[in-house]
Amino acid sequence: MSKNRLKIIADDKIPFLKGVLEPYADIVYLPGAKITAANVNGADAIFTRTRTKCDEALLKGSSVKLVATATIGFDHIDTGYCDAAGIRWVNAPGCNSWSVQQYITAAIVTLAKEKSLKLSELTLGVIGVGNVGSKVAEAARMFGMRVLRNDPPRAEQERDAISTFPGESSMPKRMTPANEGGTTFIALDKLLAESDIVTCHTPLTKEGIYKTFHLASDDFFGKMKSGAVFVNTSRGQVTDTDALKRAIQTRISEYILDVWEGEPDIDRPLLNGAFIGTPHIAGYSSDGKANGTAVCIHEFCKFFNLDILPDWYPGNIPAPPASIEISINGRNKSNEQIFYEAITHTYPIMDDSNRLKNSPETFEEQRGGYWIRREFKNFIVRAININDDIAEALLGIGFRIV
Fold this sequence. Notes:
The protein is an alpha/beta fold. It is built from 15 helices and 14 strands.
């Protein structure tokens, strides 16, 4: 490797990256969980996912100046240490938000099918209404569900904006309740008491007034509506595993988990009892992963003042295994059946769940070798005998409609 070239240590599971920056930098690809201080000692940058703990133990004494994660979350980065050490860190907020929306909608329509539920009679509680939660809330609204939202930091911003700008017409658009999904936020207790399905989309924070570590606790589950469904696709430690196990016996009817405490060594009985249990892949659409990789490349070039690849995006994302055109005849079908048919054509979520339940010891392999899942925007629904409201809902969650 040239002494004059920049050096990058990259997680070898970051897709679409190989060959892109090699003309401009030396890149070493390693398994994320096995990257060591010795590996990064002479590096200028690290491209990571969630399995590399970027903290003092890894970074102290190194020449690393930039840590870029191809993920929406950044709890694997010790941001305090990086800030103190003068190491810039960046994440990719929103990169996989449409992918998680696809996961949640697939889970909801599958639940409705298996339990013979009518979506318009259900209330969805969304905890954390950022890039992901806002899209989940809007999709549920398109389904005709009642949607409740809880997000204390955004609620505080909203209150501050209202006190600063007393007339709605003078409020900054980004702060208005309408911009947050058409309604103000509500208290967590009220959301838990009234929601048939509760879904978590928060970052993992272990300190402060908005701490989310073990947010889903005994107290949390005790306040949920009896027979409700719990969903977590955020971070495993947002859920207290023992509390969830107790709630299964006393309060909730089903649970859906994509994230787990202690993953990849997950609680096998908890997995076996899940309505849907998957290996931390809710955000793993090929589109979402491409977005995360693009953020790493753009931030690297910008940080090191390289006048290259300003608009780079992978042009080689594989086509989905299923046909991109979905023909649906809505005659004699319920809204739920139509939604289920369209959504699970793009993402048969139970296949992911069955794979993990059949082979939980291959958790990491299932993540690293995840199949080519493409988001709704890549699919065309040929709608036959489908009313305008349903067609509009399919369009609203991302499908193209003919």
